[in-house]
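Reply to dn_fold:

You asked what the input looked like. This is it:
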Amino acid sequence: QVQLVESGGGLVQAGDSLRLSCLASGRTASTYGLGWFRQAPGKEREFVGGINRSGGTSVKGRFTISRDNAMNTIYLQMNSLQPEDTAVYYCAARAGLIVASANFYDFWGQGTQVTVSS
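and this is what came back:
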């Protein structure tokens, strides 16, 4: 079992930056690929990016992802936020390389709300 806890969401203005954190715990948490997804009201869950246990990343243009293995934490740095970035952001884990489909992730956090005002 892997437990994931996101934090760092909030209300910001367009153009601001925000950093989300995801703390992964569990005996094998450090061996999992970790991804970030977001879901806006009425829309499907969307892959934002992820990081493999090796450190390799895949992420959208304005965002960056980093991983602190010692702290079992990954971070999603979001810059130049826009109202269309408003969503609940989820951290997810899978026992393999990160992929863009939410269907292939085994564990999910509870999500953290990000709201960007214009």
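The CA atoms of residues 17 and 79 lie 4 Å apart.
Hope that clears it up.
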